[in-house]
Each structure stands twice: as C-alpha cells, then as structure tokens.
Model the fold of this input.
Amino acid sequence: MKTVLYILFFLSFNLNAQIQNEFYVDDVENIEYLTVNFCVNNEGKTDKVTIIPSKTTYKNQDIINQVVEYRKSIEYYPDTNLKNNCYDFTFNFVNSKLQNSQLNENDIKLISNFKSGKFKYSGIIFPNATITRTNEYQIEQNGNEVFKYKIEWTNPYSYTITYLEVNQKEYEYLIGEKINVEIIKIVNPKKYIYKSNLLDRTIVTGIIEKLD
Done:
C-alpha cells in the first residue's frame, strides 16, 4: 500500500493536535482534493467522517482510506465551540515535485501577465471566488465575503498581500496580517501554481487562473 508522503500544511482549530491538511504525493499532475464532512460530538471527539464525492478529485482509494481514518482520530478540547455540529474539510494532495519547484528564466518572463487583471482559484477550492488585482491592491470576493489587500511584489516571482479591509467582523483579527506568496510553477500563460504562508503556520499550495 502506498503511504501518504511529506506533510506540508497545518491548520489549528482549537485542537489538542494540529490537523495535517496538505500532503505531497506522486500520483497527481499538480493538485487534487479530498473533501469530507466530519461531526464533533459533545465530548469533542470526531464521531463521523463522510466523503463528499462532488468536492473530491483525488482517486487513490488506499490513501483516501488512510486520511479518513486519520481524520476520525482527531480530538478537540472538551470546551471547543465545534462540538455537536458537522463541518466540511478539504485535504490537498500536491505533486511531490512541487515541494522544491523553482521557476526558470522563461517562466519568470511570463509573470508580468499575472500582475493585474481578473482571476479565479482553479479547482474545487473557492470555486465562486473572484480576484481583482491592480498594481497596488487585490480584492477577493467569495459570496458575501470581501477582502481587500495591499499587494507588493518582493521579487520577480513572489508577492506579499496585506489585509486592509474585511466586511465581516469574524475576520477583523486579520487586518494588518500578511500573506507571503511564491509562484512555484507556470502551468500555462494564464495559470500558475503558488505556495502561500499566513502567520508562519498556514501554508497552502494552490492554482490561480487569469480570466482576462
């Protein structure tokens, strides 16, 4: 049985332990996804995990079974505000070659195409989100949620976005925080793969596609 490879991303949910969310594997072209619905009982324990096929693109059933069993083992603090409810959670499976991927000179020449315009996230993550980017600002809208960032390019292939405005109180703690983003692969002239880092603990690999 093939095992899950190197784990990249950790997400804290008021946990006894951190949830491992992103995995390096050899059986995807770039990034694929597994989305599950999990329920937390009155004691803070996970008592049910169900795969959501419409939000799952990863196909390796052996690894899926391992990750589902892992998710079932997660326990929260007894006073967690997550208990007695169910939630969706997505695991990312990233091609292991992207772990140390770097752009070549020809790729870097294409990056100017990504510095302004309208974009979207490619894949099942935030399928309805839109990104509008100018030389100074980036605005993301996902349903009723709107985030405005200041964008600064720190080198030819990396940029930092800083939270300037949010439209919902629950996200106000993010104002002033920075997300460092590195473009690690150009898929084609309108699509790139990035690795982002928020608060030195939330690291995500994803794909952004230009719409115009």
Notes: The chain has a mean pLDDT of 88. The radius of gyration is 18 Å. The chain has two helices and 13 strands. Helices lie at 61-72, 105-110.
